[in-house]
Amino acid sequence: MGFWDEYEMMGRKNDMEKHLLVTVSEQKSALYGIKFLGKLFSNKEDIKLTLLYTYSKSPVVWERGSKEKPFTNQTHQYEDKGKKALEDASKALCDFGFKEKMITTRLDIRKSSKAGDILHEGAVGHYDAVVLGKRGVGWIEEAFEESVTKSLMKETFRFPIWLCKLPESGRKGVLLCIDGSEASYRMADHVGFVLAGQSDQNVTLMTVNPDKNEAEGMLAEAKQHLLKHKFPEEMIKSLVSKEKNAAKSILKEAKKGKYAAVAVGRREREPKLFKNMFLGSVSSVLFEDLAGASLWICH
Predict the structure, then answer these.
(1) What's the pLDDT at 294?
(2) How far is CA 41 from CA 17, 86, 104, in A?
(3) CB-based contacts of 194, cutoff 8 Å, min separation 6
(4) Could you give the domains of the chain?
(5) Which DSSP symbol is given to 23?
(6) Mean pLDDT along residues 13-41
(7) What's the order of all strands across the beta sheet hosting 261-265?
């Protein structure tokens, strides 16, 4: 058993249980992740969910327009917003068929930045993935530059992160992108584990512009990572793209195949000799431009 397998099994009651950390806020985009989960998992028996809402401890400030009560503290207001957001998220998950006993809520005062708290909790909690609602671009583009998902893209994390836009109806399956890196094989292992027992989610293994002699070996190794979790072989297919622009090719296939998710391994600090299609830039392009599907990323 390697490091990745040991990491996944920490704190798990049984080898079928999947434990996801779902970030929650009062923004509508935070519910995108919940909607995605509801549609992804037809079999919800072993899905354990921890909902996390963090809020800032408010400083004592001058109460505007009042001489009698010069100071006020907004912490309780933030706390009330958090409780309401967690209640709404829990109800939405139950409406999708998740078991109430498998849902835990966390209302925490922010210790650092929102991104920092999520990264810390994701690491110490040994979750199988961290689920974030992904805000779109457009009219909120400026605000998006400072969003928590953008911050997470700049960090190094051991656990997979699922970035969820509003899921389009009719999407199924996962487009699993393989480049021969350890990160992409770790993602293959993750996909096999998470989708084991989900009879309606196929996996397409995709590699872009590989060396002629490497494609077959890379796809075969990735397939083994799926099979070791007893993911059905008949639900796996392979695809080799000869396009040179990896991001463009992946986006094209994601749209054509109407996948529910695109899964990639991402590494940043590699010698130039080993530069590959997921060297930060491609996953960042997917992060910005992927529409209708969630983006799964791990190092």
Answers:
(1) 93
(2) 13, 21, 18
(3) 18, 128, 129
(4) 16-164 (3.40.50.620), 168-299 (3.40.50.620)
(5) E
(6) 86
(7) 103-109, 47-55, 18-23, 129-133, 161-164, 294-298, 261-265, 174-177, 203-208, 236-241
Q: What long-range pairs does 144-153 form, CB within 8 A, spacing at least 24?
A: 148/23, 148/114, 148/115, 148/118, 149/287, 151/113, 151/114, 151/115, 152/115, 152/118, 152/119, 153/283, 153/284, 153/287, 153/297
pLDDT for 42-66, tens place per residue? 999 999 999 999 888 765 455 555 5
Q: Residue 8's CB: how many other CB atoms inside 10 A?
A: 21
Q: Which residue has the tokens 């799964």?
A: 296
Q: What pLDDT score was predicted for residue 166? A: 85
The verdict on pTM exceeding 0.70 is yes
Q: Closest Cα partner for 78 from 108, 50, 47?
A: 108
> Residue 196 phi/psi, 5° resolution?
-60, 130
Distance CA 107, CA 23 (A): 11
d(CA 120, CA 280): 21
